[in-house]
Write a structure and sequence with these properties.
There is one protein chain. This protein has 171 residues and is an alpha+beta fold. It contains two helices and nine strands. The chain folds into two domains: 78 residues, Nucleic acid-binding proteins (OB fold (Dihydrolipoamide Acetyltransferase, E2P)); 49 residues, no CATH class. The chain is 23% helix and 31% strand. The strands form two sheets. Strands 3-2-1-5-6 form a five-stranded antiparallel beta sheet, with no helix packed on it. The chain has a four-stranded mixed beta sheet with strand order 4-7-9-8. The longest helix is centred in the last third of the chain and has 24 residues. The protein starts with a helix and ends with a strand.
Length: 171
């Protein structure tokens, strides 16, 4: 046990004397996402790399933004090995509140929900067609007399439920 503690102390000492490799990626914790949704404040796990504010997020696709919660895990690197140009990307784990693809403002429709809602609408329309085709007017007379309402009332169409994704937006 004492040997393990000694090994850990020696490893920490060697690591503290080793310069930061600005071409490497370092695991970090998101302290907060800034209001611009484009930058983060992060705290790297490696004690040699200080905490950083307003670190740009790189998603690898144009016009992509996301909203993440504090505590999310991300890798932090430095563009071109320049310590003045930190970037965050390559998520380890995160609670994603919103993902916006292509600068979109509308939530995407989920295929299974769309299919379910269209199927329900189809059933409702089929029932209306059946009711319409089977209706009979009581008391109809020839000429200009009025008739009474249908003997079989038509059903009201069902409402269509929301089919939007809760997190992903696109254009």
């Amino acid at each position: 046990m004492k040997l393990d503690a000694l090994k850990a102390d020696v490893a920490r000492l060697i690591r503290s004397l080793t310069p930061v490799d600005y071409y490497a990626w370092y695991p970090a914790r998101v302290v907060k996402q800034n209001l611009d949704d484009l930058t983060l404040d992060v705290q790297p796990d490696d004690a040699r790399v200080p905490g950083m504010e307003r670190v740009p997020i790189r998603f690898g696709t144009p016009q992509t933004t996301a909203k993440v919660q504090a505590g999310a895990r991300v890798l932090v690197g430095f563009a071109g090995g320049d310590p003045r140009l930190p970037v965050a990307g390559l998520w380890e784990s995160a609670t994603l509140d919103e993902l916006n693809l292509g600068g979109g403002t509308e939530f995407v429709a989920l295929a299974t929900k769309v299919k379910t809602e269209l199927s329900a609408l189809r059933s409702t329309l089929a029932a209306l067609v059946t009711a319409y085709n089977a209706h009979v007017h009581a008391g109809v007379t020839s000429g200009s007399s009025s008739s009474s309402p249908p003997a079989v009332p038509a059903a009201s169409p069902s409402t269509v439920n929301d089919v939007n994704a809760a997190v992903v937006k696109a254009r």
